[in-house]
Each structure stands twice: as structure tokens, then as C-alpha cells.
Design brief:
Elements (H helix, E strand, L loop, with lengths): L2 E2 L2 H23 L4 E7 L3 H16 L3 E7 L5 H12 L6 E4 L9 H8 L10 H9 L7 H14 L6 E5 L6 H10 L3 E5 L6 H5 L4 E4 L17 E4 L3 E4 L3 H5 L3 E4 L4 H5 L4 E2 L6 H21 L4
Parallel strand pairs: 1-11, 2-3, 2-4, 5-6, 5-7, 7-8, 8-11
Antiparallel strand pairs: 9-10
Bound molecules: guanine (GUN).
Length: 296
């Protein structure tokens, strides 16, 4: 029987822990962790994520602000806004929702956030500290994936992890986190030769490519732990519903096929997705404590 890894259950537990810690910081240190989320443009999926980040941080007792900027915002205007937020002492974390519209460059924006408020773990200082094995703010989705993998498998020593996708937001940091757990890590990507054979050697298979149902059942080693980071919107399978324009969310893994082979698997939705926001809250609390000189 394949174990379904219930990300929403783990996320709820994490959110409850964060809520407790926020209350403790307020009571014992007069400190309210604060998070700013910035969205440029009106992509519906990004709007939904940003709304959820704002609502969940408020629900956890944090100071929360959301800045919605029009899609034609200039680089200068965005930089000015982020610089302003970076100087606001009520804010301990800043997240600029990605991807940005094509005319904007995310690198100087992330640099303007600075490493201390970089709750996304995207600043070169945090990315470098992770590689160097130093304490760092680490990207939310990979941190959430690792929580799920450890909760499912326990000790990861010596396991072969294959990470498909090499983004700064997911692929690269999850590979580093798995390496730090003494996994043997293979990074695969769009130019990898014979990807199915490589995936078949994985005890832990992390799919973060953004291609709907790309990983087939016969790419999976029997009993493997499959972590599906993909969130892809596709037409309904039923042609009548598809013709009505109905869509649904699927992962990067062919879930139906994978269920026949995997030992454990994250569903999409309700798998990795809810963990991302829960870890964002956790990272904001961590950033607030570091900035206030409180032990983390
Ligand atoms: N877009 C999709 N996931 C993320 C994330 O974790 N952080 C940011 N900033 N943008 C995203």
C-alpha cells in the first residue's frame, strides 16, 4: 500500500507551533514578527498564493502587509518599494512573489531585501550559507519537502535522492538539504540524458520541473518516496468538462501511475503546497528572533 504523505496535516501542525511561538514572543519579548508580501501584476495563481500568505500570517498573530503593484510597475518603483520595506522595523520578512513580469529583473530586488529579511532564502548570502553548511534562512518549499521526507522515512543516511529540476527556489536548495542529511544526491534537469533510467535509481525522487505529469509510473523505483513539487493547471480529463473550459491542478508526477509503484507520495494538491506557506511563517519567526537577538 502506497502511503499518501498528507502535507496539509503536517502544515497544520507547523502552523500551530508557529502560532504558539508568536504568542510567546509577544508575551515574553514584546516582539510581533512581521511579514510583507509583494505581488507585481495580476496572475491569478500568484494572487491566490499571496492572499493565502497574508491570511495565514495574520491568523498566526503576525503583523502582515500585502503590497499589490500593477503589472507595468518599473524596476525603479519596485526597488524603491522593497527598499522602503527593508527599512521598516515592524517587518522581519519580505517576500516578493515570483515569477515577476518579464520586464523586471528579480536579482537586484532580492539583493535589496537583504539577507536578514530574506525569508525566501534566495539572497546569495543565504544560498551560500546553505551550501557552506552554516545557519541560514532556507527557501520555504525545499524546507517543507525535507520535513515531509524525514517524517516519512526517518533517517536518510545513504539514500539515493534524485532531484529533477535545478531552480534556485527548489531544485538547488533541496539538493543541498538532502546532501546535509547524508543522502547521495543526483541533480537531473532538462538536458539530462535518459532521465527515466536515472529516476529509476532513486530512493527519494523530488520532481520540481513544472511539466504536468511528466514523471511516469515506470520511472519510479518500487517503494520509492516521491515528492511532487509541481503545481500545473490542465484541462479536465473528461472531454465534455474540458470543452467547458474546466481546469484542475496536477503535479509533475503522473499520480495514478505512481500510486501503483511508489512506497509513499505527496498528492497534488494538499501535498507540498501547504508546507510552503507554513515554512514561510516559520522563517518569518526565525528572522524576527535573529533580528532581535533571541536564540532560535
Ligand atoms: N513562487 C512560487 N513559489 C514561490 C516561493 O516560494 N517564493 C516566492 N517568492 N515566489 C514563489
Amino acid at each position: 500500500m502506497t502511503k499518501i504523505i498528507e502535507g496539509n496535516v503536517h502544515a497544520e501542525r507547523l502552523r500551530a507551533e508557529v502560532t504558539g511561538e508568536v504568542a510567546r514572543l509577544q508575551a515574553e519579548h514584546d516582539l510581533q514578527p512581521g511579514l510583507a508580501v509583494v505581488l507585481v501584476g495580476d496572475d491569478p495563481a500568484s494572487q491566490a498564493y499571496v492572499k493565502s500568505k497574508g491570511e495565514q500570517s495574520t491568523a498566526a498573530g503576525m503583523y502582515s502587509v500585502t503590497h499589490l503593484l500593477p503589472g507595468d510597475t518599473s524596476q525603479e518603483t519596485l526597488m524603491a518599494r522593497v527598499t522602503e520595506l527593508a527599512a521598516d522595523p515592524r517587518l522581519h520578512g519580505i517576500l516578493v512573489q515570483l515569477p515577476l513580469p518579464k520586464h523586471l529583473d528579480e536579482k537586484p530586488v532580492i539583493a535589496a531585501i537583504g539577507p536578514d529579511k530574506d525569508v525566501d532564502g534566495l539572497h546569495v548570502v543565504n544560498a551560500g550559507r546553505l551550501v557552506a553548511g552554516l545557519p541560514a534562512l532556507v527557501a520555504c518549499t525545499p524546507t517543507g519537502c525535507l520535513v515531509l521526507i524525514k517524517a516519512t522515512l526517518g533517517d536518510l543516511t545513504g539514500k539515493h535522492a534524485v532531484v529533477v529540476g535545478r531552480s534556485l527556489l527548489v531544485g538547488k536548495p533541496i539538493a543541498q538539504l538532502l546532501l546535509a542529511e547524508d543522502c547521495t544526491v543526483t541533480m537531473a534537469h532538462s538536458k539530462t540524458v535518459d532521465l527515466p533510467s536515472i529516476c529509476r535509481t532513486a530512493d527519494i525522487l523530488v520532481a520540481a520541473v513544472g511539466k504536468p505529469r511528466m514523471i511516469r509510473g515506470d520511472w519510479i523505483k518500487p517503494g520509492a518516496c516521491v515528492i511532487d513539487v509541481g503545481i500545473n493547471r490542465v484541462p479536465f480529463d473528461n472531454p465534455e468538462q474540458a470543452a467547458l473550459g474546466k481546469t484542475k491542478i496536477v503535479g509533475d508526477v503522473n499520480y495514478k501511475e505512481a500510486l501503483e509503484v511508489a512506497g509513499s507520495i505527496t498528492p497534488v494538491p494538499k501535498g507540498v503546497g501547504p508546507m510552503t506557506v507554513a515554512v514561510l511563517l516559520q522563517n518569518t519567526v526565525k528572522a524576527a528572533k535573529l533580528q532581535a537577538g533571541i536564540a532560535v
